[in-house]
Automatic annotation (TrEMBL):
Cofactor(s) recorded in Swiss-Prot or TrEMBL: pyridoxal 5'-phosphate
The organism's place on the tree of life at top rank: Bacteria
Membrane spanning stretches: none
Family: Belongs to the class-V pyridoxal-phosphate-dependent aminotransferase family. Csd subfamily.
The entry's keywords: Pyridoxal phosphate, Transferase
Protein known as: cysteine desulfurase
Ranges where the Aminotransferase class V domain occurs: 26-395
Catalytically driven reaction(s): (sulfur carrier)-H + L-cysteine = (sulfur carrier)-SH + L-alanine
GO molecular function, one term: cysteine desulfurase activity
């Protein structure tokens, strides 16, 4: 993307023209949620204005239209993931619910006190706590994969942790703190040698890199729409059909049944058996337009602009002596976590906020990782394709000014640059 293309691309995101604390918004919190393009906002509105109806039920035109848009969104996700079947795509509220579904349905019915669940130190709480709940009830043990000094799962240690007792291996494709691609091929291959199932948390990967679940050969892959330019309240659970078919239902109620009587109930086939109640129809349909948007601009492919953002932000942060990045080496996506000795992350976050720069501070829902890295919390800067090198300059100048190593004049130059 050259600078004119970037200006045009940014025009798709109305919020980027908002002011925060009377400053131009610099949104560097894309790991938490991305901003939404106009087309996603418009699609959600169009559903409510033009064909609002419940899906899979009524015999009327609006319902048929809503059902068709809803199911074509499922096909869209199938193609995005290169899944074998559309019925391997289950709608959920988000990554968290997808993992809870697998934990409660597969975990509670397949794990015993002789079994082990393997996680990594870099997991988000959403990929830890549901397994702790299952472990408590079933007696299964949790084992944890360590990371190497670059912050990815240490492949040299996997065969020590994944053993014949391992029944499930869960890890993130890209950690929400480290920003690096985990060596999934090796981890999944190792899990297969002992017959363990695999669940990959793709929450940070899916908007940034191409994902092919058949090539990965994982059993489950989960993510949220809101981290990939889509609406909140929509998520995906991909599961291999044979694994999902063998799992008992999760929540029960309308939509997921075949027939109900007081002598017994029978359930639908996939995918509906896991989709109880009225789903987030507007959200799912709008999510589909977010996927089209991603394809239109090849946002999940390696591109020069994203590479430049990554290289430049890494280089600029590395040049500041006071900045300590949490892991060695450049991340694979433009997501950087760091601390500045002697300064509390919250103070830095507030200072940057006053400058109009949105970053995330704290433990990032990864407290075990903070402990592993011996830090109380950190500052996370996560960029998306609508960000610019000028925004990085402005952020770096603000950060330096906070630390006390730059002047107001430097910052003014950057503010002027941002306006152009
Ligand atoms: N896993 C990872 C790696 C994440 O980054 C997040 C969101 N920060 C989640 C899980 C949870 O996602 P959600 O809150 O959308 O369910």
């Amino acid at each position: 993307m050259n600078s004119i293309e970037l200006v045009n691309f940014r025009a798709n995101f109305p919020i980027l023209f908002e002011k925060v604390n009377e400053k131009a918004l610099v949104y560097f919190d894309n790991g938490a949620t991305t901003q939404k393009p106009e087309i996603v906002i418009k699609t959600e509105k169009e559903y409510y204005q033009q064909f609002n109806a419940n899906v899979h039920r009524a015999a009327h035109q609006l319902s048929a239209q809503a059902t068709s848009a809803f199911e074509s969104a499922r096909n869209n996700v199938q193609h995005l993931l290169h899944a074998r079947h559309a019925h391997e795509i289950i709608w959920t509220k988000g990554t968290t619910e997808s993992i809870n579904l697998v934990a409660q349905s597969w975990g509670m019915n397949n794990l015993t006190c002789d079994d082990e669940i393997v996680l990594s130190y870099a997991e988000h709480h959403a990929n830890i706590v549901p397994w702790q709940m299952v472990a408590e009830k079933t007696g299964a043990k949790i084992k944890v994969l360590p990371l190497d000094k670059t912050g990815i799962i240490d492949v040299d240690k996997i065969t020590r942790i994944i053993t014949k007792n391992t029944k499930l291996v869960c890890c993130s494709h890209i950690s929400n703190v480290i920003g690096k691609i985990n060596p999934l091929e090796k981890i999944i291959a190792c899990a297969k040698t002992v017959g363990a199932k695999t669940l990959i948390d793709g929450a940070q990967a899916i908007a940034n890199i191409p994902v092919n679940v058949q090539k990965l050969d994982c059993d489950f892959y989960v993510f949220s729409a809101h981290k990939m330019y889509g609406p909140t309240g929509v998520g995906v659970l991909y599961g291999k059909a044979e694994v999902l078919n063998a799992m008992p239902v999760y929540q029960t109620g309308g939509e997921m049944i075949k027939s109900v009587s007081f002598t017994g109930t029978s359930f639908h086939e996939l995918p509906f058996k896991f989709e109880a109640g009225t789903p987030n129809i507007a959200g799912v349909i709008a999510f589909s337009s977010a996927i089209d948007f991603i394809h239109q601009f090849a946002l999940n492919q390696a591109d020069e602009h994203k590479q430049n953002l990554n290289d430049y932000c890494y280089q600029q942060l590395s040049l500041i002596e006071e900045v300590q990045l949490l892991a060695e080496g450049k991340p694979d996506i433009p997501l950087f976590s760091f601390i500045i000795a002697g300064h509390h992350q919250k103070d830095i976050g507030s200072y940057l906020d006053a400058e109009g720069i949105a970053v995330r501070v704290g433990h990032h829902c990864a407290m075990p990782l903070m402990e592993f890295l011996s830090v109380p919390g950190c500052i996370r800067v996560s960029l998306a394709s609508y960000n610019s090198l000028a925004e990085i300059d402005y952020f770096i100048a603000s950060l330096k000014r906070y630390i006390g190593i730059t002047s107001d004049t430097d910052n003014m130059i950057c503010v002027d640059k941002l306006k152009t």
